[in-house]
Amino acid sequence: MPAVDPVTGFEHFLTEEKNASANTLASYMRDVRQFEQYLEAKGTKLTSVKSKEINEYLRWLRGTNRSASTVARCAASLRSFFSYCVAAGLRKDNPSVDIEVDKAEKKLPQILTGDEVELFLRQPRCTDMKGYRDRAMLELLYATGIRVSELVGLNVDDVRLSAGVIRCASGEKERFIPMYPQCIKALEDYLKLVRDNMISSPDEEALFVNVGGSRMSRQGFWKVVKHYQEMAGIEKDITPHTLRHSFAAHLLENGADLRSIQEMLGHADISSTQVYTKVISRQLKDVYKKAHPRA
């Protein structure tokens, strides 16, 4: 029986056993294959590599002006690969245990000010079907802080207008997130006035559809956001995630507790939510420096 290629085996492990996302799978496999090519040029095999050679490779990456986050991700990919090799019996030792990695500097998320949010949300004009749809999408994203994948994955049945909430499901987990009145009104107008005229089939379940009448894609919504950023003349780089960050930071700034924000965002760990306290702290420092006469 032929020996299992470790890289092929690792790909199968990520796909079938770890159920890795498409992005994780692509980045991990790219990192491992690039390392394999690097070793082949030196006459070394993946299954016999030592910690010293991994560290040399990471230093080589730094020398090619790769960012700290890229090098850190590559190190994580190699750690995962060699852990798999040990578990699969392809190696007895794990050479990635002692590798040296600089911690990537964590950038604080960019958020919009309250005025910028108001300006941005005013851009869609309810003069045609697309305008009604876009206003409802943008209002809902800022009202609830859901991820863009969750937004485009919503079905009509997930909207509870009378209760003023939406249902957001991910696997076996679900959460109900409240909406403010303007968002409820925007959704109500979209559902009552235009959605039935936009869908391509009466059986379409998607809440938000594209001009072809089928479910809106992440890429399609990204273009919507960029269009209205340009219309608003806002210089900050606005992405769908910017509204999620702004939602969380503005709630915290106005007195919401971290646990409630964590639940609404769907964070598994409170540490992911705590980053917004740093955002608020940074903003206060900026205000102090600009406003204090002796700062």
Report on the structure:
With 295 residues, the protein is mainly alpha-helical. The chain folds into two domains: 6-87, DNA polymerase, domain 1, CATH 1.10.150; 114-291, hpI Integrase, Chain A (Orthogonal Bundle). It is 58% helix and 5% strand. It contains twelve helices and three strands, in the order αααααααβββααααα. It has helices spanning 6-17, 22-41, 51-63, 68-87, 114-121, 129-144, 148-153, 181-198, 218-232, 240-253, 258-265, 270-291, and strands at residues 159-160, 165-170, 173-178. It has a three-stranded antiparallel beta sheet with strand order 1-2-3, with no helix packed on it. Helix 1 packs antiparallel against helix 2 (22-41) and helix 2 (22-41) packs across helix 4. The longest helix is centred in the C-terminal third of the chain and has 22 residues, at 270-291. The chain is elongated and about 65 Å long. The mean pLDDT is 87.
Write the layout of secondary structure elements.
Elements: H1 6-17, H2 22-41, H3 51-63, H4 68-87, H5 114-121, H6 129-144, H7 148-153, E1 159-160, E2 165-170, E3 173-178, H8 181-198, H9 218-232, H10 240-253, H11 258-265, H12 270-291
Antiparallel strand pairs: 1-2, 2-3
Number of strands: 3
> Can you identify the CATH class of the largest domain?
Mainly Alpha
Low-confidence stretches: none
Strand content: under 5%
In terms of structural class, how would the helical and strand content be classed?
Answer: mainly alpha
CATH H level of the largest domain: which superfamily? Intergrase catalytic core
Distance between the termini: 74 Å
Which range best describes the helical content: under 10%, 10-25%, 25-40%, 40-55%, 55-70% or over 70%? Answer: 55-70%
CATH fold-level label of the largest domain: hpI Integrase, Chain A
Order of helices and strands: HHHHHHHEEEHHHHH
Query: How many discrete domains?
Result: 2
Mean pLDDT: 87
